[in-house]
Design goal:
This protein is of the alpha/beta class. Helix content is 42%, strand content 15%. It has two domains: 237 residues, Type I PLP-dependent aspartate aminotransferase-like (Major domain) (Aspartate Aminotransferase, domain 2, 3-Layer(aba) Sandwich); 130 residues, Alpha-Beta Complex (Aspartate Aminotransferase, domain 1). It is built from 14 helices and 14 strands. A seven-stranded mixed sheet has the order 2-8-7-6-5-3-4, sandwiched between helices. The structure holds pyridoxal-5'-phosphate (PLP).
């Protein structure tokens, strides 16, 4: 069996979530908008899922908008609030290390005449709340900062940022897609206006997520064609998905993260003991499962492929687009040299990861790096003598 160290990409479906979903896939086939008994049964399941998710957030069920995942939740939050507020102002503040769902939504708004401030981060990937305060102007309508980064695991000071947004009465969106695998968001403590969630990062099914929207927030829908989700997201709801999501949320709440943090730190320690390997992200304020490094002299994609052949599943911070590998915008924003950023590796642990998995990963990664560097050395010598 492969050692799966890519939980930030997606996590295995929890058995309990699958069990809870099965009756809604097999037996309760009704459309929750139908008024007959089958429809009412599906509606009841959906309502219960909404109530359970709301309860874990300390929120009201009507504040939950089910979406197809984190990407849609981010799009809805950013474009929905920006469009609704465009008569008041057209300035948005975000960070330069957000997920592409946020970055691309902002880029689209920019093309529509909005002004976007992309805040810088420090070497560990942290946003400085003072920079947020300085960036907010009279026409700012939204601030969007993630709770934790998906590539390097750095946790952001969202409560501090939320406090200053509240003071200035500006909507605050938090992408909590990665952090909610470890602690459910606290919209009130963060003084947030909108929070994005995704089920498949926390042991739920793929294709379902949610946007928590504080009561009274003006937001235009992105999808039209139905009155579902209180007119905020048209389309027949993913009932089984919502039930799996709610079940996974309820299961994941009270885990003790100390053992995972120990394994994460051992992994970082073992990898950074290798020559020319540097940790990325914050040393301590990072997600319990996230170990990330940059490695001199290799391509991250080559290393991920080499590890895969050895039965270790990992990922790189680089995004592959149409055959060319661009260094990650997150690493570049953190001030990492573009050449070095090509050699990024992200290993994200799960509840099943063992000490033996971690030790084997360190050993195999060391061997793969040595092999790839030797090949790169041979290649550059061949080019030099050609
Ligand atoms: C921080 C963050 N936001 C948003 C998303 C998108 O979530 P989904 O895969 O559910 O669309 C991800 C997924 O990797 C993420 O890590």
């Amino acid at each position: 069996m492969a050692i799966y160290l890519d939980h930030a990409a997606t996590s295995p479906l929890r058995a309990e979530a699958l069990e809870a979903m099965l009756p809604y896939l097999r037996d309760h086939h009704g459309n929750p908008s139908s008024i007959h008994a089958s429809g009412r049964r599906a509606r009841q399941g959906l309502d219960e899922a909404r109530e359970r998710i709301a309860a874990t957030l300390g929120a009201q069920p009507r504040e939950i908008v089910f979406t197809s995942g984190g990407t849609e939740a981010d799009n809805l939050a950013i474009k929905g609030v920006a469009w609704a507020a465009s008569a008041k102002g057209r300035h948005i503040v975000t960070s330069s290390v957000e997920h592409k769902a946020v970055m691309s939504s902002c880029a689209m708004l920019e093309r529509q005449g909005f002004e976007i401030t992309y805040l810088p981060v420090d070497r560990s990937g942290r946003v400085d709340p003072d920079e947020v305060a300085a960036a907010i102007g009279p026409y700012t309508v939204l601030v969007s900062v993630q709770a934790a980064n998906n590539e390097v695991g750095t946790v952001q000071p969202v409560a501090e940022i939320g406090a200053l947004c509240r003071e200035r009465r500006i909507a605050f969106h938090v992408d909590a897609v990665q952090s909610s695998a470890f602690a459910m968001p606290e919209p009130d403590a963060w003084q947030a206006t909108l929070v994005s969630l995704s089920a498949h990062k926390l042991g739920g099914p793929k294709g379902i997520g949610a946007l928590w929207v504080r009561r009274g927030t003006a937001m235009l829908p992105q999808l039209s064609g139905g009155a579902q989700e209180r007119q905020r997201r048209a389309g027949t709801e993913n009932v089984a998905g919502a039930i799996g999501f709610a079940t996974a949320v309820a299961l994941g709440l009270d885990a003790d993260h100390a053992p995972m943090i120990g394994l994460r730190d051992r992994l970082i320690e073992g990898l950074t003991a290798l020559p020319d390997v540097e940790r990325t992200g914050h040393p301590t304020d990072r997600l319990p499962n996230s170990a990330s490094v940059v490695i001199e002299g290799i391509e991250g994609g080559d290393l991920v492929a080499a590890l895969d052949l050895e039965g270790i599943e990992a990922s790189t911070g680089s995004a592959c687009t149409t055959g060319s590998v661009e260094p990650s915008h997150v690493l570049l924003a953190m001030g990492i040299d573009p050449q070095l950023a090509h050699g990024s590796l992200r290993l994200t642990l799960g509840p099943q990861t063992t000490r033996a998995d971690v030790e084997r990963t360190i050993e195999v990664t060391a061997a793969c790096i040595a092999r790839l560097r030797a090949i790169a050395g041979l290649h550059s010598r061949a080019v030099a003598t050609a």
